[in-house]
Amino acid sequence: MPREILNPFKIAQSYFEQAAERLKLDAGMRAILSTPKRTLTVSIPVRMDQGGYRVFIGHRVAHNMARGPAKGGIRFHPDVTLDEVKALASWMTWKCACLDLPFGGGKGGVVVDPHRLSDGERERLTRRYTSEILPLIGPDQDIPAPDVYTDPQIMAWIMDTYSMTKGATTLGVVTGKPLALGGSKGRERATARGVQFVLREACRARKISIKGARVAIQGYGNAGSHLAALLHEEGARIVAASDSGGGVYDPKGLTPAQLLAHKRAGRSLKTFEQGKMITNKQLLELAVDVLVPAALENQITSANAGRIKAKIIAEAANGPTTPMADDILFRRGRTVIPDILANAGGVTVSYFEWVQDFYTFFWEEDEVDRRLEKYMVRAYHSVAEAAARHKCSLRGGAYVVAVDRVAEATRVRGIFP
């Protein structure tokens, strides 16, 4: 049996190659689309509160810009690697193309545990990192956004640093900003909303009613907790939820607001008073209708894919399913709504924010939700049609749609000089 691929960049490349085969792309086009356009690694000296300096390492990658400026988050995490950032940048290329947004793919990361920094140290780290990547970013070049352990405040510092350097307030240089600085209403729960909209379509296709459906959610951060609340409002039964420490299971159903209050009190969901404690691995294999991996990469592998009982797996996280696991699930008749479609609500509302910033004219939340639903539903049906045409999984269909759009833009533009 071949060894399973777990490297995120190699996984991203393998999905691209499958789509390239289906589209019969020539070797030259494959090389252009699979190679990051630019990769920058910088050192970030930061003055610490106790005196002295520490040097952190940061990256910013623009994978492809054929359809527009690069778009993608910045994460602060001790395990950030250049391969991970390259993989995430390529996923952003395909995600933006899958949703037909006028963006390419970018991503950034700093190797740091932000929990070990004071607010002042985080601000100085952010501003110095911004100054190092500043020649590459801009509202028409490369537009950062929040990601793991970054937030609207970090985006505000990036926007201010960029604006002070350029000499003019430039709201559109980042998205995911506070509302006071040109952020969009609806952005906080946009990823969850996007998952909700495509999950509705997948449930209709599988003739599953969301009302009464049993749902398990691995990962109770922003996306997972908001999605639990949204599905609960639609009548779904949230039977299991977990965080990094473990989780809780109750077949009678859990109340999302109570789970969130427990988390906000600083306690792990495994200590929740109701139901029984389970591990993250056990949660994945529960007898449910819908499984939502909303945590880390490589959670569903060839080792456990044969035991997944959920009829629909909606990938709220990036890369939770390995290619071998994806094949197993497809052969077993499971519907996997792939990450580049399922969790694209965040970047779609980031696009809306960017548009609003350009016009300095801002929409109410119901308009944001209405526009988001239109984009997500349209993308789902484009993906489903491509999957049916190529007799492949929804992931295969999503990559066919995305890669075809980027290849066409590349062909039409040509290569300069």
Helix content: 40-55%
Element-by-element helix/strand order: HHEEEHEHEHHEHEEHEHEEHEHHHH
Straight-line N-to-C gap: 46 Å
Q: Name the CATH architecture of the domain at 190-342.
A: 3-Layer(aba) Sandwich
Total number of beta strands: 12
Which parts are unreliable, with pLDDT below 50 for 5 consecutive residues or more? Answer: none
According to CATH, the homologous superfamily of the domain at 190-342 is NAD(P)-binding Rossmann-like Domain
Radius of gyration: 21 Å
CATH topology of the domain at 190-342: Rossmann fold
Strand content: 15-25%
Number of helices: 14
Characterization of the model:
- Pfam families: ELFV_dehydrog (PF00208), ELFV_dehydrog_N (PF02812).
- Among the domains are: 37-172, Rossmann fold; 190-342, NAD(P)-binding Rossmann-like Domain (Rossmann fold).
- 45% of the residues lie in helices and 18% in strands.
- It is built from 14 helices and twelve strands.
- The chain has helices at 8-23, 27-34, 82-98, 119-133, 152-166, 190-206, 222-233, 256-264, 280-284, 323-331, 339-342, 345-359, 365-390, 394-413, and strands at residues 38-47, 53-64, 70-77, 104-111, 142-146, 214-218, 237-243, 246-254, 276-278, 290-293, 312-314, 335-337.
- The strands form two sheets. A seven-stranded mixed sheet has the order 9-8-7-6-10-11-12. A five-stranded mixed sheet has the order 1-2-4-3-5.
- It is globular and about 55 Å long.
- It starts with 7 loop residues before the first helix and ends with a helix.
